[in-house]
């Protein structure tokens, strides 16, 4: 196996874990899967650091490992324990249709990147295709899940896709990556506070209850 | 060095604005702020004249604004001409406001904005890249908006502010699009790069129309003038003068900069649009003005008319230039620029006069004024000079520039396109008609306001305005006289700018000799001779009246002292004066209707005559657009109340659709 094969193996694994995120219907495994995705992503970034001889990517990998694999899952666990929320994910669209839609999205991004990045050397377009797939699947998760915690995880997984894209495409400034990482951390804090506020008021983090509170839907 | 000094002037103006923010409530702030503004403006005027006379074109790039792009400034000949116009108007308005501003009820709402507004207008003219231009342009719009709504107690002013805001936004959008087309995909926003880049013939029409809409909406061309007669009168007097006399000129500058300078050669067919729009604007502007009885609104509509005249001149210059008639193009362009200068003089003067009247009487409605010549004789004289100048009466400056525009129109016979050969004389005829109507309109404005007897208590007890205001008015009146008697002084100053944009210039005028637009063998105009003739004719008439009129025996009723009717309401009013013209012209265009309501027999109520006018711009353009916007926004309203998941869904679906399009796009 050459270095590119291993890079693609890891990137493909990240996409596979995105599907796994879509499949989960309970919160603890969802958080676990997210941690696993972040771990694989950290490995992928570290491998890119090796092959591209870009030592700053190792810092990115460290941030991934520290924040997304350890810190954020712990905070999320702590949150659901403190909130004592139902540990099931409220689903809008069933798992089966969601997975099929996800497959279509992966096909779309592969087809798009084959055309858009055709001129780029090496196999960069495949990296970009994987990254775009992760982003789209994260968005799909945010749209089709009603539980607030699962929306947070969807958001974080979009960010995972961005990091994957940033490390695959050479020359992305390091400062951009760190900025994105910190913005995600800030987002976690803000969203966490909101989760507590929502729970305080509605005794649930099911967003449908907020809709009915606004008087829009029953 | 000069450009640096010019920018320092603007920084000083902004500093004065900051000073005014802190001190506006104090009684003494008014005099200090306006005096300092006047000094800064006079310095700017000096810089502009130095650039024009020395024919230098200083440029400067400052590392502020967008990173790695910066802001570029330059004073070329065209910018220097408009810099002079802005700063002369600004200095006059500041001097006027030293006296006028003391009567301001809320000085903190006016004082800080005036210097900043002047600085923004100067920066528009100084800008040498699209970013700086648009930024300053938008600053100019916003600051003038703040001044329009400074007296926001009346619903009328608030409505004026709202309409102005919408139209200013539309205008900036059009200019932004024009610059985007001009810049292309190169991404270099400096004017030098745009000039070198050029614009393809297919796109030049788009850019011209966008410039006409963007700059024209600010200048007040029909039918985008709708905000102007609402907003200009709503502001305090000296600000009205600045908006009408100066800001519309900055808009003309924007149009000239884009169309004459940045676009390069323009096809002759496009000049038809400019000439037609100008002629329609001139005629409708003066017809609107005739129907008004609010003095400031009448003046604002006359701004519309004069902008029309300027655009006809610019359109002719475009037509001549595209056909290679450089001398004719130079004449038309000089005439347009000269009219820009002249209009800024007499329109500022007239707005000062109306401001002085409003301060003295609290009235803008001419039907509640009258007889002011007895209580405000000096204001009356200054206003009369301004009225004569705007009516294009020799030997004043309005005549000189309009005469030059007609001379240029006579040269249209040399054009190869028969369409233009027919159209330019027709446009000139329209201009002649509108000049005559303008004279009628100012007979009305002056006669109803200053002559006859006072129609209200306020008008009869008015006091003459203060010294600073009178000084500003008479200085501008003197400027009108000098520019009319010796137009060569000014056309010589305009030569570098005209040379730059039309590759030719009018012959250099030596002073005692008459002004020769083309050559000494053609038509010439000698202001001095005409001035002497006019003075001689006035003397003969005055002496004749003294000698002959007093000999006649006059008979009248006993005790009525020569006034056969005691009621002041038996005098001509603004409405009755305009009635013949309204019946002839306005019954079709404005659908003017008159209805007489007679009281039933035995009822002692007075008979009433009601006239109704319909503004075609509102009926045909604004009302349908307004209805369409309200229908569309009504349909889109549900989208304001979706849940966050639906919004995410919309974003997601849009993204997927766009990506799909990108994937299957051939």
UniProtKB/TrEMBL annotation, chain A:
Transmembrane region(s): 6-23, 30-50, 56-79, 91-117, 123-141, 148-168, 174-196
Signal sequence segment: none
Organism for this UniProt entry: Rhizomicrobium electricum
Primary residence: membrane
Membrane topology listed for this record: Multi-pass membrane protein
Annotated localization: Cell membrane
Alphabetical list of PANTHER family matching this protein: HYDROGENASE-4 COMPONENT E
Keywords annotated in UniProt: Cell membrane, Membrane, Transmembrane, Transmembrane helix
Lineage: Bacteria, Pseudomonadati, Pseudomonadota, Alphaproteobacteria, Micropepsales
Entries under InterPro entries matching the protein: HyfE-like
Name assigned to this protein: Hydrogenase-4 component E
From TrEMBL, chain B:
Pfam families recorded: Proton_antipo_M (PF00361)
Location (main, coarse): membrane
Membrane-spanning residues: 32-52, 81-98, 110-127, 162-182, 202-227, 268-291, 298-320, 326-350, 371-393, 422-451, 471-490, 528-549, 644-665
Bilayer topology term: Multi-pass membrane protein
Keyword Glycosyltransferase attributed: no
Keyword field contains Zinc-finger: no
Protein's recorded name: Hydrogenase 4 subunit B
